[in-house]
Write a structure and sequence with these properties.
Helix content is 35%, strand content 18%. It has six helices and nine strands. The strands form three sheets. It has a five-stranded antiparallel sheet. It has a two-stranded antiparallel sheet with strand order 6-7. It has a two-stranded antiparallel ribbon with strand order 8-9.
């Protein structure tokens, strides 16, 4: 019988942390902000992920793969709420339940953003530069509803779990969390009232709250 490869304990712990934190997060949405819970996509398939990886030319981090195979992002729904204007075509106000109005990108959107950013970066003729616009292996897992900002997982150095960086139009990427599991755990902790949401020790200016059925940070 062929022996299965033994997973590195650090990676195994990171995968467990990410999956458990995601379960806490989605459970909280179901109980306290069901509009957001309703916007969670069904699981991504191995085929969808492999097709995206083939187009991107890189493999997604294991943590991200695991979470996408539970819910393929939060971009499923488009809706109009009573008393509110209609939301934009990428999914609606119910699809960004994360701090900084970030969306958890589905596999297709992750692939589209990554390939577009890499094409732009290559056109700038700055490969390998410290100030390269978008490096090979920066996986845009979360993006803001507007503008070029969000969180990417850094696979450029081959680390797994991949570190999470915050990026924006007017700044260089900053390390935000040691792993995806750490980020999701920080979000879940804040929602459950365990501790304030912090990014590398910096506390968010406002605690999360639910307004008109939608989560606000």
């Amino acid at each position: 019988m062929e022996r299965q490869p033994i997973m590195d304990l650090g990676i195994e712990n990171a995968l467990t942390s990410a999956v458990e934190a995601w379960a806490r997060f989605t459970q909280w949405l179901s109980e306290c902000a069901p509009i957001h819970a309703d916007a969670l996509n069904p699981p991504a398939t191995e085929e969808q992920i492999e097709q995206a990886e083939s187009r991107m030319g890189v493999r997604l981090p294991l943590e991200l793969r695991q979470v996408l195979m539970i819910n393929n992002g939060t971009t499923a729904r488009k809706r109009t709420l009573s008393g509110r204007s209609s939301y934009d075509v990428r999914g609606g106000g119910d699809y960004s339940p994360f701090p900084s109005h970030n969306v958890f990108n589905d596999v297709e959107l992750t692939c589209s953003l990554y390939t577009g950013n890499r094409t732009a970066s290559i056109s700038m003729e700055e490969p390998g530069s410290r100030y390269e616009y978008w490096k090979n292996g920066w996986i845009p897992a979360f993006t803001a509803k507007e503008g070029h900002s969000g969180l990417f997982l850094d696979c450029s150095v081959g680390a797994d779990p991949a570190q999470v960086y915050a990026y924006g139009d007017d700044s260089f990427p900053d390390l935000a969390f040691p792993s995806l599991g750490e980020y999701l755990g920080a979000v879940a902790d804040a929602l459950e009232g365990i501790r304030p949401f912090t990014v590398m020790g910096r506390e968010a200016p406002h605690p999360p709250s639910v307004r008109d059925g939608l989560l606000a940070w």
